[in-house]
Amino acid sequence: MQTTPQRNQLFVASCLALLVTSLSFGIRAGILGRLGVQFELNATQLATIAGTAFWGFPVAVVLGGIAVDIIGMKKLLHIAFLFHLLGIVLTIFAGGYWSLFISTLCIGIANGTVEAACNPLVATIYPENKTTRLNYFHLWFPGGIVIGTLIVFFLDKVGVGWQIQVGLMAIPTILYGYLFSKLDFPVTERVASGVSTKEMYKAVFFTPLFWVMFILMFGTAITELFTGQWIDILLKNVSDNAILLLTIETGVMVLGRAFAKPVIKQFSPQGVLIISSILAAVGLYLLGHSTGNTLFAGAIVFGMGVCYFWPTMLGFVSENLPRTGAVGMNFLGGAGMFAVSVYMFFMGGYYDRLIAAKLPAGADIKVYTNAASGTEFANVLNEAKKAAGPEIINFTLVIPIFLTVAFIGLYFYMKGRKKEVLTAV
After folding, report:
1. What is the pLDDT of residues 228-270, one digit of tens each?
2. Which among 60, 152, 153, 248 has most CB atoms closer than 10 A?
3. Cα–Cα distance for residue pair 301/142, rounded to 1 Å
4. Over the stretch 346-355, which tens digit does the pLDDT of each residue have?
5. Full-prediction pTM beyond 0.90?
6. CATH superfamily for domain 7-424
7. DSSP 121-175
8. What is the domain partition of the chain in residue ranges?
């Protein structure tokens, strides 16, 4: 096992890089509705812009996963730093749909590149407890969303514009770029252990268990990230504090990941995934069938559910399929984000159709969208959105129900495999 004297500094810098990634999610979720009003964008256009980050991410994480063993993790993180800065600047000076599209794409590429380098980095520097450390690392994803949504909430109250809110992301970006430039990086765990590139790709493409996890990652990522990114839009007309629902949900995720070690030790990764799916389904049900304070209970339960999804999926593959290396972890992350981008695109169009169906027959949606607040047209549109948002959430509820069944199957499969190993010994 290779030694990494600077591993604590590398871990701190990795957490800062992930903080920028999550700030981009939290702040964008908070300002998405405002961007729609300012630039006259409908839900389909907003979904496409938000979804751009989710498909820019998988492109970067997959290409980065392939490149990380070739150019090294340090150079990959330099690329992430440059794309983060470019995305922040382009967002601040955006003038409409296409400029928002391009700036969000840049941030998505940066976010994916961070994960492409940092996931294998964390697994490499903490080989003795990968899943726990990946949970600690990914604690900063919901942590940054909490910070981002609070930034939006409080700065909105004092009248600070969204451009300044986005600009604040430059502070941790510059900080992580500086720290990584000063640190020495190890080679990836796969390279250090002597597993060849050919063996790694063979383990990725010809291991059925990897493909099972690859497909299940679609569902875990959609359940967590689609709901989080769109919760303000979907429930804005149901609750006056919809953005705080995201803050509460992600706050619960921060606490959960901080105590990941005893939870994973008690239930095993596959047991944790079963419990997570059940709680996520219950949380979505409450969010889709409640109003008032019950929504906050739904956010708490949902946060408990999705808390362990992403890092535990990565940790499971890294621990049980170590020969898949950085490519395996990054293909898994790329699959999740790609699924979210596709789902978000279709749900944006579905949301628009639901709203249109709830308006009077033959209604011109632009007339209702441009109507002054408090007018009859505006009130009718608000009621349509109030009904359409929960329907999208209820549609998504099917996914964690399916995941519960699938992870129960995974639990018994792994239990049987462990018994086979013990019998062979």
Report:
1. 777 766 676 556 666 678 788 888 999 999 988 899 889 989 9
2. 60
3. 15
4. 888 888 888 8
5. no
6. MFS general substrate transporter like domains (1.20.1250.20)
7. HHHHH-TTSHHHHHHHHHTHHHHHHHHHHHHHHHHHHTT--HHHHHHTTHHHHHH
8. 7-424
